[in-house]
Design goal:
With 176 residues, this protein is of the alpha+beta class. Helices cover 34% and strands 19% of the residues. The protein has 6 helices and 6 strands. The strands form 2 sheets. It has a 3-stranded mixed β-sheet with strand order 1-3-2, covered by helices on one side. The chain has a 3-stranded antiparallel β-sheet with strand order 5-4-6. It is elongated.
Protein backbone atom coordinates (compact mmCIF):
# COMPACT_ATOMS: atom_id res chain seq x y z
CA UNK A 1 0.00 0.00 0.00
CA UNK A 2 2.80 2.45 0.89
CA UNK A 3 4.61 1.71 -2.38
CA UNK A 4 1.40 2.33 -4.37
CA UNK A 5 0.91 5.67 -2.60
CA UNK A 6 4.50 6.67 -3.37
CA UNK A 7 4.05 5.83 -7.06
CA UNK A 8 0.78 7.78 -7.26
CA UNK A 9 2.37 10.85 -5.73
CA UNK A 10 5.45 10.48 -7.91
CA UNK A 11 3.18 10.66 -10.96
CA UNK A 12 1.47 13.82 -9.66
CA UNK A 13 4.78 15.50 -8.85
CA UNK A 14 6.43 14.61 -12.17
CA UNK A 15 3.40 16.00 -14.03
CA UNK A 16 3.88 19.31 -12.20
CA UNK A 17 7.59 19.43 -13.02
CA UNK A 18 6.86 18.54 -16.66
CA UNK A 19 4.41 21.45 -16.91
CA UNK A 20 7.17 23.77 -15.67
CA UNK A 21 9.78 22.22 -18.01
CA UNK A 22 12.07 21.46 -15.08
CA UNK A 23 14.73 18.97 -16.28
CA UNK A 24 14.52 16.32 -13.55
CA UNK A 25 15.77 12.76 -14.18
CA UNK A 26 12.91 10.77 -15.68
CA UNK A 27 14.61 7.43 -14.95
CA UNK A 28 14.51 7.01 -11.16
CA UNK A 29 15.94 3.55 -10.42
CA UNK A 30 14.33 3.12 -7.02
CA UNK A 31 11.58 4.77 -5.00
CA UNK A 32 11.30 3.48 -1.45
CA UNK A 33 10.08 4.12 2.08
CA UNK A 34 12.82 5.00 4.56
CA UNK A 35 12.81 4.27 8.28
CA UNK A 36 15.20 7.12 9.01
CA UNK A 37 14.10 9.26 11.95
CA UNK A 38 15.98 12.47 11.17
CA UNK A 39 15.12 13.25 7.55
CA UNK A 40 12.01 13.47 5.41
CA UNK A 41 13.63 12.24 2.22
CA UNK A 42 16.91 11.44 0.54
CA UNK A 43 18.20 11.30 -3.01
CA UNK A 44 21.27 9.24 -3.78
CA UNK A 45 23.07 8.51 -7.05
CA UNK A 46 26.18 7.08 -8.62
CA UNK A 47 28.67 9.24 -10.50
CA UNK A 48 29.98 7.81 -13.76
CA UNK A 49 33.76 7.45 -13.73
CA UNK A 50 33.98 8.12 -17.48
CA UNK A 51 31.63 11.09 -17.90
CA UNK A 52 31.23 12.44 -14.37
CA UNK A 53 27.45 12.43 -14.85
CA UNK A 54 25.11 11.48 -12.03
CA UNK A 55 23.12 8.30 -12.77
CA UNK A 56 21.05 5.60 -11.06
CA UNK A 57 19.04 7.94 -8.85
CA UNK A 58 17.32 6.47 -5.80
CA UNK A 59 14.76 8.39 -3.75
CA UNK A 60 13.62 7.40 -0.29
CA UNK A 61 10.75 9.04 1.61
CA UNK A 62 10.21 8.88 5.38
CA UNK A 63 7.59 6.43 6.60
CA UNK A 64 6.11 9.28 8.66
CA UNK A 65 4.82 10.92 5.47
CA UNK A 66 2.90 7.78 4.53
CA UNK A 67 1.89 6.19 7.84
CA UNK A 68 -1.59 7.32 8.91
CA UNK A 69 -0.52 7.08 12.58
CA UNK A 70 1.30 10.40 12.12
CA UNK A 71 -1.62 12.05 10.27
CA UNK A 72 0.57 13.39 7.43
CA UNK A 73 -0.84 15.79 4.86
CA UNK A 74 -0.77 15.23 1.11
CA UNK A 75 1.07 18.56 0.78
CA UNK A 76 3.84 17.34 3.09
CA UNK A 77 4.43 14.26 0.95
CA UNK A 78 4.30 16.22 -2.31
CA UNK A 79 6.64 18.87 -0.89
CA UNK A 80 9.22 16.24 0.05
CA UNK A 81 8.89 14.31 -3.19
CA UNK A 82 9.34 17.45 -5.33
CA UNK A 83 12.28 18.49 -3.11
CA UNK A 84 13.98 15.16 -3.82
CA UNK A 85 13.12 15.21 -7.53
CA UNK A 86 14.74 18.64 -7.84
CA UNK A 87 17.99 17.07 -6.61
CA UNK A 88 18.01 14.93 -9.77
CA UNK A 89 18.20 18.06 -11.96
CA UNK A 90 21.56 19.08 -13.46
CA UNK A 91 23.55 21.29 -11.04
CA UNK A 92 21.10 20.59 -8.19
CA UNK A 93 22.84 18.05 -6.01
CA UNK A 94 22.84 20.58 -3.16
CA UNK A 95 20.52 23.45 -2.28
CA UNK A 96 22.31 26.01 -4.41
CA UNK A 97 21.14 28.73 -6.78
CA UNK A 98 19.73 26.43 -9.47
CA UNK A 99 17.88 24.22 -6.98
CA UNK A 100 16.38 27.32 -5.31
CA UNK A 101 15.32 28.70 -8.71
CA UNK A 102 13.41 25.50 -9.51
CA UNK A 103 11.88 25.47 -6.01
CA UNK A 104 10.69 29.06 -6.57
CA UNK A 105 9.14 28.06 -9.92
CA UNK A 106 7.14 25.34 -8.14
CA UNK A 107 6.05 27.79 -5.45
CA UNK A 108 5.05 30.49 -7.94
CA UNK A 109 2.92 28.06 -9.97
CA UNK A 110 1.49 25.68 -7.36
CA UNK A 111 2.02 27.38 -4.00
CA UNK A 112 4.08 24.47 -2.69
CA UNK A 113 6.83 25.97 -0.54
CA UNK A 114 9.86 23.73 -1.11
CA UNK A 115 12.38 24.30 1.67
CA UNK A 116 15.87 23.07 2.38
CA UNK A 117 14.77 21.80 5.80
CA UNK A 118 11.30 21.09 7.08
CA UNK A 119 9.72 20.34 10.43
CA UNK A 120 6.72 18.32 11.58
CA UNK A 121 4.39 21.31 11.14
CA UNK A 122 5.56 21.90 7.56
CA UNK A 123 4.84 18.28 6.70
CA UNK A 124 1.58 18.04 8.62
CA UNK A 125 2.96 15.28 10.81
CA UNK A 126 1.44 15.14 14.27
CA UNK A 127 3.65 13.38 16.77
CA UNK A 128 2.06 13.01 20.16
CA UNK A 129 3.73 14.75 23.10
CA UNK A 130 4.47 11.40 24.75
CA UNK A 131 6.13 10.15 21.54
CA UNK A 132 8.68 12.99 21.79
CA UNK A 133 9.55 12.03 25.33
CA UNK A 134 9.81 8.31 24.48
CA UNK A 135 11.66 8.84 21.21
CA UNK A 136 14.53 11.06 22.38
CA UNK A 137 17.25 10.33 24.91
CA UNK A 138 17.18 13.91 26.23
CA UNK A 139 14.31 16.42 26.33
CA UNK A 140 14.04 20.06 27.43
CA UNK A 141 10.76 21.91 27.83
CA UNK A 142 9.85 25.59 27.57
CA UNK A 143 8.33 27.02 30.75
CA UNK A 144 6.34 29.60 28.79
CA UNK A 145 4.75 27.72 25.86
CA UNK A 146 5.36 24.10 26.90
CA UNK A 147 7.19 23.14 23.69
CA UNK A 148 9.40 20.07 24.00
CA UNK A 149 12.77 19.85 22.25
CA UNK A 150 14.37 16.43 21.96
CA UNK A 151 17.94 15.34 21.30
CA UNK A 152 19.49 11.92 20.75
CA UNK A 153 22.87 13.03 22.06
CA UNK A 154 24.11 15.26 24.83
CA UNK A 155 24.41 18.82 23.56
CA UNK A 156 24.90 22.30 24.96
CA UNK A 157 21.16 22.95 25.17
CA UNK A 158 20.66 19.71 27.13
CA UNK A 159 23.66 20.18 29.39
CA UNK A 160 23.00 23.88 30.13
CA UNK A 161 19.37 24.70 29.23
CA UNK A 162 19.53 27.85 31.37
CA UNK A 163 21.83 29.38 28.72
CA UNK A 164 19.22 29.02 25.96
CA UNK A 165 15.72 30.28 25.18
CA UNK A 166 12.78 28.84 23.28
CA UNK A 167 11.60 30.52 20.06
CA UNK A 168 8.87 32.18 22.14
CA UNK A 169 11.47 33.60 24.53
CA UNK A 170 10.66 31.26 27.42
CA UNK A 171 13.24 29.57 29.65
CA UNK A 172 14.12 25.94 29.05
CA UNK A 173 14.30 23.18 31.67
CA UNK A 174 15.58 19.66 31.19
CA UNK A 175 12.83 17.08 31.84
CA UNK A 176 14.66 13.97 30.64
Amino acid sequence: MAQRKLKDYMEKCTRMLNELNIPYCKDIKELSVSHAERRWGQTSWRTSVNTGERTDFKISISYKLINEKYTPTDEGLMNTMIHELLHTCPNCHGHGTQWKAYAKMVYDRYGIDIKRCGNDNDKGVDEKEQDVIKKFTYVVQCEKCGAKIGRYRMSKVIEHPQNFRCKCGGELNRIK
